[in-house]
Every structure is written in C-alpha cells, then in structure tokens.
Design goal:
The protein is of the alpha/beta class. The chain is built from eleven helices and six strands.
Length: 284
C-alpha cells in the first residue's frame, strides 16, 4: 500500500533535517545502497571545503546494490560480508568481516536507507525498520548512538507525484514514531528539479541514479548539511566548494557540469531541504 499523506498532522512544525552533534570526533556508518553511493560521491571534497579536520571524523558507506532494510537484516543474520567504503574523513574503522563485527564498534551515527522502489510503501518499513533499529542498537556499544534515515529521491518526472507523496509520508512516520532524524536528500533533489536544474533526464543518468556533476552534487550537499554541518559548524551555504568532474565523469551519460550559478542553487536546495525536510521549497 502506498502511504498517503495526513494533511491534518502538524508533526513537521519545527522539525529540521540535521543531526545535532557537538563532539570532538564523529564516526558515521551508512547501511545503504547505490543511492547513498551517489550521495557520498563528492563528500570528501565537500567536507574538505568546509575545513573539516580529516583526523576527527569518518563516513563509511555500506553498499547492497538495490538493497534495503530487509537486506541488511539478512546480512546481519547470515554473517555474509558486504562492501563498506570510507567516503570521507581519516578515522579508520574495521569494516571487514561480518556485519555484527562491523557494528560492534563505537559508531556515533548509523544512517539507514530503504530501497527506492519500496520507500513510498509503508508496508516495506513496518516490520523491517523496528528489527533493523533494534539490531543496530543492540550490537553497537555506544549508548549515545544516533540513528537517521536518508530520504531518497524519486525516479522520473512521470512517477514523481505518486512516489513523492509516499516518500514524504513514510519519512514523517519514521521521524515521528521511531525518533530517527530524516536526512532529506530526496527533498534537496526535488527542490533542484523544481528550480529548473535539468540534464534532460530529471537529473538522473538512467532514470534512477543521480547524474555526474549537478545531480550528485546536490545529493552530496544535502547529505553534508544533514549529517556533518553541525559537527563542522559550517553550513553548506558557507562552503565554497564547486566540484570539478574528471574527463571520464564528464563524458558519462547525462553528466551536467557545475558552475558558480548552479552550484549555488544546489547548495540553497540542500539548505532549504534541511530547513523543511517534508516540503519542496527553494528560496533565492
């Protein structure tokens, strides 16, 4: 069943899409898929642009292609190893071996994702989410572990109306009923699309994943704003970085180069998404 929005629910008033984190070090583990891969593609460069000391933090991204919460539960229960990559920062964590061993370390934040095909269907969450939350909390020794959910983007212009309403309703329910902070990457992407940024494929490269350049940059900017800005004490709006694609990236299908103007728009879209995670809104 596609989750329908509840127009009478005022939960989102005062809610923002940023993790509040004030400490000397920050260790982040993402249990994700290719969407979190897109959203961390330029995270090293964006974090460097914020002046973050690499020795004080790390962001690791776990990848199950096309995977979601049930797949991470099965991974934990089966002991199967998964690919986990350090995407930013220099703190080294042990990410080899079974997921149980990976989780049994002092992570400060664990970000959860759902398969984008299921992210607008509450039925895909109602059993998997509490099981995964409990499993992560029971294995991680940090009693102050924060859990977050990365809100994905919709696929195509034709499917957005149906998918977006469900995505938002599910994300609001996750925040309200389970207390997870929603990192609104999908909201930032939708903001950018509504602002007129387009590569001819709705900022995707294949009707699923973000295109090189602008697409990945707005997703990464949103992840930075939600995940690292309070730790860095620097908003994405104050970050001067403009990612420059390699020739190989620029030649890929759908690639859209960044310049001062569209990079500024991307950052505004990411900032506004964090301000209002459940609304499509852009302020110039």
């Amino acid at each position: 069943m596609i989750e329908e929005p509840d127009e009478n629910d005022s939960f989102e008033i005062g809610y923002h899409g940023r993790l509040d984190f004030d400490a000397d070090t920050l260790r982040v583990l993402i249990l994700g898929n290719s969407f979190s891969g897109d959203a961390t593609s330029y995270l090293k460069e964006v974090a460097d642009g914020a002046g973050l000391d690499r020795d004080r933090f790390c962001v690791y991204n776990g990848m199950i292609s096309g995977g979601g919460m049930n797949d991470w539960i099965k991974t934990l229960e089966s002991g199967v190893e998964r690919s986990i990559y350090r995407m930013a920062g220099a703190i080294k964590m042990n990410v080899s071996g079974p997921l149980e061993d990976v989780l049994n370390q002092p992570w400060d934040v664990c970000v959860l994702l759902q398969n984008s095909d299921a992210s607008y269907n509450w039925g895909s969450f109602e059993h998997a989410l509490p099981r995964l939350v409990e499993a992560v909390r029971s294995h991680c020794p940090n009693p102050h572990l924060q859990l977050a959910y990365m809100l994905p983007w919709t696929h195509t212009k034709k499917t957005t109306e149906k998918e977006w309403a469900g995505n938002i309703s599910c994300a609001r329910k996750i925040a309200k009923e389970y207390g997870l902070r929603v990192i609104p990457v999908g909201t930032a992407v939708q903001n950018a699309r509504c602002q007129g940024l387009d590569n001819g494929m709705y900022l995707t490269r294949d009707n699923w994943h973000m295109c090189n350049g602008v697409g990945k940059f707005v997703a990464t900017s949103a992840l930075y704003e939600g995940l690292l800005s309070s730790f860095a004490k620097r908003s994405i709006l104050d970050n001067p970085v403009i990612y420059e694609m390699t020739p190989e990236e620029a030649s890929a299908k759908g690639a859209m180069a960044l310049d001062e103007n569209n990079a500024r728009i991307c950052k505004q879209c990411a900032f506004q998404a964090a301000e209002k995670p459940f609304e499509t809104t852009v302020e110039q």
